[in-house]
Amino acid sequence: MSYTKELEQAKEELGLKEVEENHEEVVEEDGLTQMIEVNGKPVLFDFGVLTGNKILKIKERYRKIKKSKATVLEEFDDLYYMLVAEEVSQIPYKEFLSLKYKEYNAIKVAVRDFLSED
User: Fold this and answer.
1) Residue 43 carries which DSSP code?
2) What is the pLDDT of residues 39-77, one digit of tens each?
3) Would you call 103 helix, strand, or coil by DSSP?
4) Which residue from 8, 35, 52, 66 lies 20 to 30 Å from 17 (Cα-Cα)?
5) Contact, 80 vs 90, CB < 8 A?
6) Do 36 and 47 meet the contact criterion of CB atoms below 8 Å apart?
7) How far is residue 73 from each of residues 2, 77, 82, measured CA to CA in Å?
8) What radius of gyration do the chain's Cα atoms show?
9) Could you read off the pLDDT of 66-113 as tens digits, one per residue?
10) CA-based nearest residue to 77, from 97, 62, 58, 94
């Protein structure tokens, strides 16, 4: 059965008449990608691009930005999370800093959760 027929059958079974369809981009949920709203628009955060070298460069950049105010463990600082978010989304970290707290926190939690996985 084709995708379109399956979709129509599912709509019929669920009693849905009109459903907004958006097939522009399908993201596999493999634990390495996540869609997060940034300024009300979905943005792909691709944690699969992170390598050991990239994390080391992010930590070095974090220390340069924070200078003497850097925490011993970067992983406990929001700025570090925003720098990682910048790397995986290609959105400048300063843009994240100007978001409403709910969106900012969603990004911070997503990055923290990913980094804390085994």
Assistant:
1) E
2) 889 999 999 999 999 999 999 998 898 887 766 677 788
3) helix
4) 35
5) no
6) no
7) 51, 8, 15
8) 19
9) 887 766 677 788 999 999 999 999 999 999 999 999 999 999 999 999
10) 62
The predicted model scores a pTM of: 0.69
Q: What is the rounded CA–CA span in Å between residue 75 and residue 78?
A: 8
- Measured between alpha carbons, how far is 91 from 87 in angstroms, rounded to an integer? 8
Hey, what are 7's tokens? 């979709």
The residue with tokens 């949920």 is 29
Phi/psi region, residue 90 (left: phi>0; alpha: psi -120 to 50; beta: rest), is left
Q: Which residue has the tokens 């406990």?
A: 76
CB contact at 8 A, 107 and 36: yes
The single-letter code of the amino acid at 103 is: E
Determine the Cα–Cα distance for residues 111 and 92; give it in Å rounded to an integer: 15
Q: Which two tokens stand for residue 75?
A: 């992983």
